[in-house]
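Feature request disguised as a bug: please show the residue count (677) next to THAP-type domain-containing protein in the output. Example input:
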Amino acid sequence: MALRNLYNDGRFQFIEESLNDVTKNFINSQLRNVTHAPTARRWTIQDKAFALSLYKRSPKLYRYLKIHFQLPSISVLKKVLSSVPFNCGLIKPVMDYLKLQSEQMDELDKCCTLIFDEVSLASGLYYDSNKQTIFGYEDLGFLGRSRGTANHALVFMIRGIKTNYKMPVAFFFTKNSIATDKLKQIIIHIIEEIQSVGFNIVATVCDQGSTNRAAITALTKEHTDEKPSQYHFVVNNQKIVIIFDVPHLLKNTRNALQSCNIEFQSNKVAKFKYIEQAFQIDRTERTYRCLPKLKESFFNSRDSFLKMKVKVAAQQLSNSVAAAIETFCSNTSMPAEALFTAEFVSLIDTLFDSLNGSSVYSQSGKKFRSALSNDSPHIEFWSNLLPKFSEWKLFDKETGKLHTAYKFIEGWQISIRAVMVLWSNLKEKGFKYLLLRTLNQDPLENLFGQIRQHGITNTNPTCYQFIAALKTVIINNFGVALSKQGNCEEDYCKSVGDFSQFLQNYAAEEIDTEETSDSSILDSSEAEIISGEASAYVAGYFLNKINIPDCSLCKQSLFADDASGKHLFVMFKEVDDVTRLKYAHDQIINLVDTIHTSLYHFLDQNGHLTNIENRFKTYLKEKSLIHVNYLCTEHNCLDQIIDKCVRINLYKYVRDQKVLKRVSDGHSKKLKKFKAL
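Example output, currently without the count:
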């Protein structure tokens, strides 16, 4: 009654004026479908995208919500995902979409960076019967697949410089780290393809991983112009500068300071112990703290998680820490030597600010935390600092020996020079200022965070789960990250337009049906063990699933005349004296066993190949492994049996590999514990 009164009073106008698009679409979908039977409901692509984000977040919660709301069936959501082709390498739907978007964009808006990074995955296989492909193997797209089991995803993303957009454009699955030569080929290939759809890659952004550095170095030597340098390479006559992710450079600097003493000027040495000492003095001897953001856990060098967090490094190397050290030195709580550490910390804080500005004008009185422009102090600061980097030396805290393993100094030098060249090029194009935070890889790190939130915080997804999560995030135009514990700042980037609308080209209208599983047969005992008496039961199962004509010769070829010892399990499965189960002929039982044995051998060598079912059937014919005397020349049911048997054994192979991995991982953990004793 209350709802009717609201309607009569015209107070539903607030829905149009106050609610966001997602809420309005959801309410509209409820009103549109509430009177329809489940099979008569229809869903817009926005309805499906929103429902998909809910389902991927928590399937159990989605099933509960489906009781109370009109929501697409799970089978519809799975069809949405399967209808959008996301294959390793360049993501074709995304590239097609970017080409359409670039035709409507201003030239300056097309300027973007290419970000790439790896994320750890759980090794595990999954068979997709629609694609006849086992996911979980190393897959480098146009460079091919290999038998190695993948445990990392290498992802490439573009990020706008003038306009704040982002879009993943390619992904690859690798075993451990990718080879340098292959990474180099992939970078060039992606840049050329991005250029071909109308976007202008002006910089690459990555961390200082050894493979990244080696690939970048090779590119600067092999793809250059008349003025080669360490900080740029050329693709199709377009200069692309090399920038190492500034937050990673900050962490690398802090890590080096924890292990080494850093001489940054003659007779000026920074030591991490003075940062820790300042924290201890501030914590124990003062009523109000100078360093309230620092915590004792930040100084636990064994905590690898905290060591990875940028905010920990930023707080340890902050202006507040420098001021605290100077304060404690002035009142003799700390030795005068600590002033050098304060000077170094202040320098790093300023350097980080100068490459991390997110607003046009300075914030909190820090003049370098602003956009780069003709009037800003950045260029002068960098020009004065660059020659001083060559004087920096690292000495091992324990031995005092010169340390050369850390590469952060070179990283700062290359990145600063690259930004200076980039700014010069962008000014010529018409840029008035440059927000330097657009030159880091936070958007990609945040994408990884969103992917890990799928499936009740699936922090370590498999390859197949990664693809499904990546699709869901992109279809929902990145949505909103739910976790506030991420390692990066919010990037405030949006998708390049509304990608979900573009999916109308791929996602046809589906009718709600009950959810089914391609591999549901594996839950039944027929697939548990294919050996001995169980083989006869499984062979009978296949005969029950195929279409057998009313032909005496066919039945004579497929069914046993009398039950034998091989059919003991089948006979005991009968619930009474009435024969309900199928008793397969010996040659059909042998066929099932042959396919199982041959397929496992074939997959051990060729499981990474695509079109796997058809390849294996060809293999069976070439090796003449099928020995069945089929009496009927008019009908041939063998192909149906082979199709069923091959598919179920592919699912079984994948499941058996999971079991073997679980056992192997268990033994490895026990061995580690034993060695630790």
